[in-house]
Amino acid sequence: MAFDSSIWVWIPLAIAIALALIGKKRAAFATLAVALLGAWFEARLSITGLLVTVLGFAIASQVPRNKGFKKYLALTVTIVWSLGMALHWLPGFSNLLVLDKVQTSPASIPFTMYLNLDKPLIFFALLLAFPGLLGKAKSVEWQSLVKPLLVLTSLLPIAVILGGLGVEVSLPNWWWLFLLNNLLLTCVAEEAIFRGFIQQEISKQLGWKTGLIVASILFGIAHLAGGWLLIAFATIAGACYGMAFYVTGRLWAAVLVHFMFNFIHLLFFTYPIAIR
Known about the structure:
single chain, hydrolase, Rce1/LyrA-like_dom, CAAX protease
C-alpha cells in the first residue's frame, strides 16, 4: 500500500483533534497551525483555502463575544461556512485519496476513502463558536445507556435481514487507516455538528428530548444520498449517539459510540453495503 508523501500532514491534524477533545484547546490550535502550514507546504492547502479557514475561524470566534443581531449574523455565517466545508464546496483544499475502490470481499461494493482536510476544521470552528461544545461531565446512570446500545447493536443484523448488508468477518490491511480517519476525522466532525452543536443548543431552548429528536432527524437527512433505508437507520443510530451524549454529558462518548458502531460494521459485515 503506497501513500502520497503529504500524508504526514494528517498526523498533526489528528493530534490537534485529540488534544481538543480532552480540553487542551491552546495546544490543539497550536498543533493545528502546524498541520495547516504543512498542508500549505505540501500543496494540500492553497492561500485561498488558508484564507477561507482563517476567516471562518475569525467569524466563529465572534459568536460567544456578541449579542443580538451581531451574534446571530456570526452564527449564521458560521453555519453556512460549516455546511460548505462539510460538502467540500469551499475552494482551496486538496483532500488526499488513500483508498480507491477497494473491497473488503467480493460481496462488498467498492469503497473509496479520502483523508479530508476541510471537514475536520468544522470541529475547531464550532469550538470557537460554542465554548461548551465538548459538554460537561455529570454523574452517569449507566443503565440509561443499555436500551440505546441494544437498539444500536440490532441495526446491523436488521440491515442483513433486509438485504442491505451481509455477514462477513474480515480485517482488511487498511483497517488502521480506517480507524484513524473514521474516529478522529469523520466521527468527531459529525458529532460536533449534530450532538455538540445542534442537540445541545436546541436542548437549551426546548428541552433535551426535542434536541435529541431534531438532531437525530437532521443526522438521518444528512445521509440522503444513501436512500430512505439509510436515512431511517442513520436517524435511529443518531438517536443512540445522542443518548450517549445526553447520559454522559461528554461529546467524546458520542464520538466513541459512533466509531465503534462503524468499526463493528467494517469487521463483521459487508462494507459499506452488500453487492445486490
